[in-house]
Amino acid sequence: MFKESINSISMTWQDKINKINQQDCLELMKEMPDGCVDLCVTDPPYGIDYQSNMRIQSKQFEKLENDDNDMRFVAFKEIYRVLKNDSVIVSFCSFKNYAVDYLELEKYFNIKNCIIWFKGGGGIGDLEHSLLTDYEMAIVGHKGLCPIRGKRDGSVWEAQKVFSGAMTHPTEKPIDIMGRIIGKFSDVGNLVFDPFMGSWTTARACMEMERNFIGAELSADYCEIGKQRLRQQVLL
User: Long-range contact list for 45-53, CB < 8 A, 24+ apart?
Assistant: First the structure.
């Protein structure tokens, strides 16, 4: 795989780069030295105890680990530590907790933007009183100042959702969105960190973008899905 920016990484956790790691992210970060990753892009549990009503082949998605607590706030502090100077965290959040996530991230990072992913459609819910939720949000926080790569785009990005029949995770993000973030805030050969890998879309985007990745996921099922997706990526 890609090697350019991992020269100073200790062997203790270097073996976990570009691998599927079934592990608690806080335990993984304990192994990681200060200032060792170039970008963090992640979609953490939002702390809203979300239950997807979507069914794939008659099977309902299970609730997500740590979606009934604020564990992500502990992770934000550690993410700041493992990020290099002049780098970025991009963290997805719900409109329901944007304010608290912003304030928590602001303790460590210089908040520069909120990316609005316009995904079209909407969802089920209160059809009489609630507008369609046709967007998602991702807070962009800088540790120092990180230059944008390429064109200076706006903050509203349009991309199609993952087709419901192809979803492997209840909050799965399209690879186009993750890849665009990675392209804007990192370079070829950089190391991208996602502490909440889910179905490993970030890892797959890194492979397409020629970045290294490191991350963790607690669920054995999602780790197995990740293995299958990355094997498929290698064969493409």
Answer: 45/71, 45/72, 45/196, 46/72, 46/93, 46/94, 46/96, 46/97, 47/71, 47/72, 47/97, 48/94, 48/96, 48/97, 50/170, 50/171, 52/170, 52/171, 53/124
Q: Concatenate the DSSP letters of all residues of 146-183 into one string.
A: -PPPSS---SEEE-PPPPGGG-SSTTPPPHHHHHHHHH
Taking 3-state DSSP, the helix, strand and coil percentages for the chain, each rounded to the nearest 5, stand at 30, 20, 50
Q: Do residues 218 and 24 lie in contact, with contact meaning Cβ atoms separated by under 8 Å?
A: yes
Answer yes or no: are the C-beta atoms of 42 and 92 closer than 8 Å: yes
* Sign of the four-CA dihedral 123, 72, 111, 199: negative
Cα angle vertex 38, ends 34, 40, to 5°?
90
- Under 8 Å CB-to-CB from 12, ≥6 apart: which residues? 31
Q: What is the pLDDT of residues 123-141, one digit of tens each?
A: 666 778 888 888 999 999 9
* Cα radius of gyration (the chain): 17
pLDDT confidence of 231, banded at 50, 70, 90? confident
**What percent of the chain shows pLDDT beyond 70?**
78
Provide the residue ranges of all domains of the chain, joining segments of one domain with +. 11-235
CA 233, 120, 93, 69 torsion: positive or negative?
negative
Tokens of 175: 């690879």
Report the CATH number of the 11-235 domain. 3.40.50.150
Q: In this structure, are residues 166 and 26 in contact, taking their beta carbons and an 8 Å threshold?
A: no
